[in-house]
Amino acid sequence: MQDDMKTSERFCDYYKQWVEVYKKDAVREATMAKYYMTQKWIEKLAPNLKVSELNRTEYQKILNDYAKEHERQTTLDFHHQLKGAILDAVDEGVIDRDPTRKAIIKGKTPRVKKIKFLNQFELHTLLAHLDIRDEPNWDWFILLVAKTGMRFSEALAITPADFDFSRQTLSVSKTWDYKGNGGFLPTKNHSSVRKIQIDWQIVVKFSELVKNLPEDKPIFVNDKKIYNSTVNDILSRHCKVCGISEISIHGLRHTHASLLLFAGVSIASVARRLGHASMTTTQKTYLHIIQELENKDVDLVMRTLSGL
Predict the structure, then answer these.
(1) Residue 275 DSSP class
(2) SS3 assignment, position 97
(3) What is the pLDDT of residue 142?
(4) Using CB atoms within 10 A of its CB, is residue 249 exposed (0-12), middle (13-18) or buried (19+)?
(5) In what order do the strands lie in the sheet with 163-164?
(6) Is the pLDDT of residue 4 over 60?
(7) CA separation for the pair 288, 255 (Å, rounded)
(8) Assign residue 49 a region: left if phi > 0, alpha if psi is -120 to 50, beta otherwise?
(9) Exposed, middle or buried, 173 (CB in 10 Å: 0-12/13-18/19+)?
(10) pLDDT band with cut points at 50, 70 and 90 for residue 251
């Protein structure tokens, strides 16, 4: 009887219940928001589709309709979130066969991507233009992200106590809930908890900046609500004045990693510094740079072999 009720219920209702049972309080808020967004799209695209009617054709129609308004990668993410619920329905015997099998992922032509990182000259120009005062401001924040490659939420959570100036390290062990009501949150993943080696310039500048600040309070957080767009706008204005490519704060993280890779730092070391869960993430994100470096390696190999 219960199985009959499940097969006769709407798929959007089944998915909503699945999200509440399996994902709520088990994933980060940002990830949960994506599941809720997928839920809304199912309610929009297939409001009356019953679980028992979900076959390969109906599922492909859903993907095709979603792909009309989204790029291929976004459609692929949508597919993966639906697939988790559907495979559970198959395991429970609510659906006979996996309708997601051999699904075709389509999508709109990707928009022209903005430049995500600066070259070494542009970064040098940007840092020289920053207004580094006696008290913390967003220019100090930009400097720290550029020099460490931290995520936005990680850099917001940095306190004076996180610096070990004698060992030239900075501990990353938490994030700041800038999207919610503030307060410390865990890092994105276990690998994100790390110690970042910092250069002597950062040691000198920040040791002076934080000496009179509370040890356990975030350096860049005050009583006002913090928006990512506010800092991005400040960075964008600096870029315009300097006549360099306009990037976001996250683009500074890409810049940091790109310059290290071009300098010959190993992928493993860059992955650890960025707090990536695996080197695969680093390789996918910076594939274009790695390919360019491989071309240089071929030249080096040929010169080395020809000299034997």
Answers:
(1) T
(2) coil
(3) 98
(4) buried
(5) 163-164, 169-172, 194-197
(6) no
(7) 13
(8) beta
(9) middle
(10) very high
Number of domains in the chain: 2
User: Which letter does DSSP use for residue 104 in this model?
Assistant: P
Verify that 141 and 270 share a domain, yes or no. Answer: yes
179 and 38 assigned to the same domain: no
**What average pLDDT score do residues 209-221 get?**
96
134 and 194 part of one domain: yes
Domain CATH code at residue 85: 1.10.150.130
Where a domain ends, among 37, 70, 91?
91
Tell me the three state secondary structure of residue 169. Answer: strand
Does a structural domain hold residue 267? yes
Given a contact cutoff of 8 angstroms between Cβ atoms, the answer to whether 161 and 216 are in contact is yes
Residue 98 lies in a domain: no
The dihedral over CA atoms of 287, 288, 292, 293, expressed in degrees to the nearest 10, equals -30
As a whole number of angstroms, the distance between CA 277 and CA 138 comes to 28
Domain housing 85: 2-91
Q: What residue type is 167 in one-letter code?
A: R
304 or 19, which is more confident:
19
> How large a percentage of the chain has pLDDT more than 70?
95
